[in-house]
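User: Here's a structure from my thesis project, written as structure tokens. My advisor, Dr. K., wants to see whether a designed sequence matches the one we expressed. Can you design one independently, without my sequence as a hint?
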């Protein structure tokens, strides 16, 4: 995937390395980790690791403003470029609808973060908070995609020799999916779904969550379609790489990996098959009207 040399969005908020400002005593870190564990069901060990990161950040020797490493700088340039691409995709689409696109802010963080939706931990993965209209990403999730989920772009012959670019389109797809949730928020889809969920059964609420997630995948496909027309950024193997990511981040795959069996009732993101399908619908059509996952039989 080509990404260097394009506009970098000014809507990236880099909070990495700001841990020292979070609190003066490590007990606060412990409380934060405990809250993450209690309310988000984060693995206690991971919560503990987050505490450790905060403790490390409070070490007097690290009180000086932290310089970003070359890798961290590269990650923010990458995410900022993809965010700018989504802005340049959705602005004209909203204009056609007679609306003004208000882009989301994107927060980069390390370990743990305060969001408008509460305290969040990187183990939860990237997420969108509708309250403050911000996307939150711990760039270490990209490393996990590569190292733990095996999304390394191994289908991508053109990128294999360049370790730093392996899996980059899969990462861009994650950003575009989260921006997809922002689009749903702006279009009022999220609030309609929330209302319907409050009235339905738990199984119905889950079904609606799945459709919301699949629509965000379809919106990510629309981004890929429009961005390709605008910048010709795709290289051979990129689409396969995104499909591989959609497959591996599908709920059935994650559940199989963790429990050895699939429990369809608790699906919230859709199966691997469904995710691949809806990304492709957006990619091929580039058309918002094709992404009505609520009407379609899935
Ligand atoms: Zn999502």
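Assistant: Designed independently from the structure alone:
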């Amino acid at each position: 995937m080509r990404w260097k040399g394009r506009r970098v969005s000014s809507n990236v908020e880099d909070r990495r390395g700001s841990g020292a400002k979070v609190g003066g005593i490590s007990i606060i870190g412990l409380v934060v980790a405990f809250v993450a564990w209690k309310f988000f069901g984060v693995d206690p060990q991971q919560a503990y690791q987050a505490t450790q990161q905060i403790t490390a950040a409070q070490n007097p020797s690290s009180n000086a403003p932290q310089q970003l490493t070359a890798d961290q700088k590269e990650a923010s340039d990458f995410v900022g470029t993809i965010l700018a691409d989504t802005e340049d995709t959705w602005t004209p689409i909203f204009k056609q609808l007679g609306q003004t696109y208000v882009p989301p802010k994107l927060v980069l963080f390390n370990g743990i973060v305060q969001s408008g939706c509460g305290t969040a931990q990187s183990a939860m993965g990237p997420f969108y908070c509708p309250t403050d209209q911000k996307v939150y990403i711990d760039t270490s999730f990209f490393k996990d995609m590569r190292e733990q989920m095996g999304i390394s772009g191994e289908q991508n012959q053109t990128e294999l020799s360049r370790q730093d670019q392996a899996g980059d389109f899969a990462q861009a797809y994650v950003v575009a999916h989260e921006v997809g949730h922002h689009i749903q928020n702006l279009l009022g889809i999220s609030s309609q779904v929330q209302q319907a969920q409050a009235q339905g059964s738990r199984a119905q609420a889950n079904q609606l969550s799945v459709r919301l997630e699949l629509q965000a995948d379809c919106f990510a496909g629309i981004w890929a379609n429009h961005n390709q027309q605008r910048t010709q950024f795709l290289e051979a193997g990129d689409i396969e790489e995104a499909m591989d990511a959609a497959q591996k981040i599908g709920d059935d795959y994650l559940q199989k990996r963790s429990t050895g069996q699939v429990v369809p009732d608790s699906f919230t993101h859709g199966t691997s098959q469904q995710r691949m399908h809806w990304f492709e619908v957006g990619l091929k059509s580039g058309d918002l009207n094709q992404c009505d996952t609520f009407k379609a039989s899935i």
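When you compare it with your expressed construct, this may help: Residues 177, 181, 213, 216 surround zinc ion (CB under 6 Å).
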